[in-house]
């Protein structure tokens, strides 16, 4: 008894407990729901068998049904626009801002800190704000664009099917900008100053220093930022109900919102699970990229 | 070597806000010379080097490299190479890529760049390491790559910023010789910053001692050793450091009365104004010590240390005096010794201005 006790406070038992708690947590809160979701996507689920686990096996029926939905390809296209538009926008503007704030000017780090406000705000609030900014008749974005002479008429960002997905993408770029900027700032700060000085003496101009020193030295950070960006963008949900509700006519609907609609508006949980399973594959690829890129840290 | 100077600094001033980092620096470096900038940390030697490189802007004065005015010219257009204390190797490039970086920027054809890299690698013994990354190299090897990266450019001047301070003592002594040999072989012009006076003395043709942003004295290493212009230079150059004793010039003007026990007056071999307050400097290696009480200064010994080839004596009393004896000595701790010093070896500095008299 004493030996078991001492092993728990200081020995193998302690190690096992530490690992065990984590494993239990992961299993209960990530493993079980994930497996449950996989199983459900291969079952027939309706309101009557929702509370049991043994439901009729459906094979790939749910998958076939999802793919043959008339809006399936539209949702895929929208998801692609949303994901790549958001990541590209967040990354490019985030990188530009990160580099800008590396310059030493008064209050540089204070102002950089203020950018985090956008990241701290709840998605629904950001959605509401952008809902007003993007409003067709009284929105401030239209007023600015008209004032600058870029557009003549009124852009109906939220109700024009050609624009609605972009409306949400713009809001999401703003929302994720600060996160990208912060991670990239950390990466930039990790590059020793004397590398730039050595490169400058070796004859590199500003652009050459950026492409031959900054970018390669930032490789792992950039990989991590892009992979996390993909994951966060596929998770982004709040903006859709707040701005467009996926409409009009699914023109701004994306996979994650669609999955929610299947499960919690149409109560077809099997199809909701099926859509999220399809997304899981993309997230898995992103996770592998993330893990690999953080493993290949190159620091001199 | 009377040709046009390779680097010419006239009246260089540098302010960081209200801090005056470099004060009216004049320095002429002929082509082919090895110049060491030496001084305690914060004396401005690194700032001066970085100003020559163009990494720091100067506030006033004229800076010329190979006859062309360089004020305001960006570093990449100055054609000087620098070896950093941290080496600053590009961690994401192999040794070969590190060496050819400057050539690749200049769009030198690949084959030509590789040939140049191979040649440099042969000069400094890196052939086996061309495909390694900096993290896979030892300190000495990194040092060599940093040198190679400078050599391959065939620059107008080499700038070294304490390049050996990250190496262990044995390697440092070795690299000292190697850098100097390389300098001679390439016929290069080098400016070398160090806080180690031994490095400066052994490597350089011309040593510049700096303090608080001012050039305290410049000259050949032995000039600085034999005739230091100020008490600071006298104390900085030479190891172990010179002994300093406060004193007053005696009534005859040819002796100095030292404020130390065990001495009446020391002949100084020159004629100075009687009653003048001075500081007397005696190099440990110029003092002769004999056991007993015959000598100009008679003092008890407190510590005897021997390295085998040299014996160091430290005397009792204030100020302590250090004496170096070549070879072994019979003198033991607590013995009394008589110290003798030739008048021409006595350095005398004004107590106020600290300038040599």
What this model shows, in words?
The complex is a heterodimer of chains A (300) and B (357). By secondary structure, chain A is mostly helical. Chain A has one domain: MetI-like (MetI-like fold, Orthogonal Bundle). Helix content of chain A is 71%, strand content 0%. In chain A, α1 (2-9) packs across α2 (12-41) and α3 crosses α15 (269-295). Chain A is flat. The mean pLDDT of chain A is 87. Chain B is α+β, with helices and mostly antiparallel strands and 357 residues long. Chain B has 2 domains: 5-236, Rossmann fold (3-Layer(aba) Sandwich), CATH 3.40.50.300; 243-350, Nucleic acid-binding proteins (OB fold (Dihydrolipoamide Acetyltransferase, E2P)), CATH 2.40.50.140. Chain B has 8 helices and 20 strands. Chain B has helices at residues 45-53, 95-105, 110-124, 139-151, 169-186, 197-203, 221-226, 231-236; strands at residues 5-16, 19-30, 34-38, 60-65, 68-69, 80-83, 157-161, 190-194, 206-211, 214-219, 243-249, 255-258, 266-267, 277-282, 288-291, 297-306, 310-315, 322-326, 336-340, 347-350. In chain B, the strands form 4 sheets. A 6-stranded mixed sheet of chain B has the order 6-7-8-3-9-10, with helices on both faces. In chain B, strands 13-12-11-14-20 form a 5-stranded antiparallel sheet. Chain B has a 5-stranded antiparallel sheet with strand order 15-19-16-17-18, with no helix packed on it. In chain B, β1 and β2 (19-30) form a beta hairpin. The longest helix of chain B has 18 residues, at 169-186. Chain B starts with a strand and ends in a 7-residue tail after the last strand. The A-B interface holds A 192, 194-195, 197-205, 208, 212-213, 216-217, 219, 298-300 and B 53-55, 74-76, 78, 80-82, 84, 86, 88-92, 101-102, 105-106, 134-135, 149, 153.
Mean pLDDT figure of chain A: 87
CATH topology of chain A: MetI-like fold
Average predicted confidence as pLDDT of chain B: 91
At CATH level 2, the architecture of chain A is Orthogonal Bundle
Q: In DSSP terms, counting alpha (H) and pi (I) runs of 4 or more, how many helices of chain B?
A: 8
- How are helices and strands ordered from N to C of chain B? EEEHEEEHHHEHEHEEHHEEEEEEEEEE
